[in-house]
Structures are given as C-alpha cells and as structure tokens.
Amino acid sequence: MDIKKTTLVVVLMLIAVISFTKVAPWAGNPQNHTYYVEKTDEKIATVMTLSGGAAATSATLSVLPGDICTPIAEQLAELAGYFLLILSALYLEKFMIGITGYVAFSFFIPLACLIFGCAVVFDKKNWKTVACKIAFIGIVIFTIVPASVKLSDMVYMTQAERVNTTVEEYNELDIENEADSGILGEITTLKNDTVEKVTSFLSGLLESLAVMIVTSCVIPILVFVFLIFLVKTIFSTNVIIQQK
Question: What is the dihedral of CA 79, 85, 90, 93, to 10 degrees?
C-alpha cells in the first residue's frame, strides 16, 4: 500500500474517532441545539395552555345545571384529547433533536469511514459506494429533525397571531350564569356575552388545532418522506450509473 492510501486510511480512521468521541456527544447534547429546543418548548407551552383551557372550560360547562351546554362541553373535551396527542408529538420531536445527532455521528459516520478505509486497503470500489451511502444516511438522520422544526416554525409564524388570540380569549374567559327557579325546577342560562366568548374560544381552538396538526405532525412527516425519497432517488441513480 503506497503512502497516499496509507495517509487516506489514517485520515479516515481519525475522522471516525473524532466523530465518535467528540462530535457525537456534542450533537447529542440538547444544549447545543437551543434554537430548535426553544421553538419546540414554545409550542409545547402553547399546546398545554390550549389543552388545559379546553379541559377546564369543558369541566365548567358540564357542571352547570341543564343540558344546554353539554354538546359544547363534549366538543371541548374531545379537542383537549387531540391537543394531548399533539403534545406527545412535540415531546417526541424534542427528544429526537439530540438522539438523531448522536446516532448519526456515533454509528453511521464512523461506520462509513471504516468501510471506506477497508475499500481503500482492498481496492473495492463497491465498498466505497456503500460507505458514501451510509455517510449520506447519517447526514440525513442528523438534519431531519432540525429541518422539520425550522420549516414548521416558518409555517407556524404565519398563523401564530390567531393561536395567541385564542390563548388570550381563554385567559379572559369568565363563565357566568343566571339562575331562575320555577315550577319546572332550576333553569340556568349563560349570559349572551359569555356565550359569545365561549363560541369564539371554541372557534379559535378549532383553528389552533388545525395549525398545530399541520406544523407539529404533517410537516415533520412530509419532511421525513421527502428525505427518504431523496435518499432512494440518489441510491437509484447510483445503481443506474454503475449498470451503465
């Protein structure tokens, strides 16, 4: 083996060691991804507020005498359940910020360097192709969560004002009732302005739920599908080139 090959192998092994011992711990530390963590935490806080607001309003309406508010209370309770699902997706996204980086630089990149080094030693061109594919997969894994968070935040900012308005509506919501006693028993009705506030809050919750589903669930899935499609396309192109 000549000097050039020896030097290349040494460099590749050095990259593998640095990737495993230095880059992987850095990439796996959430404190080194403050932007993505902060953006996710902001969404988590908003979803928790909306979920808690829906549940609290539903509970308040359900204890009022009569069945007038029962449909609204049931719908609010159902929305609270959907918000909890979104909250779970956001927490998963937050955990994946550090995990994907650690996996990429502790496993895929060192493995790619090791295979490429063996390809240089044994002069195996096919092994070099495999090593490049593994390295590319590692890069995709590392970038998939930050890319989805960034894109989700860009979309979310276009509708953030409506979501914030819904939070303000909940903070200002004060359910009051008027009670009258008669032959048929106690009848309780909400004041007109209270009904309008509850209706507006419910409408805002529906819009906020749609925004959160798109930004927290749909966009990350689409980013994942796009990157998988990109990987398959590149690998297919490599196969076609090799066949030619």
Answer: -160
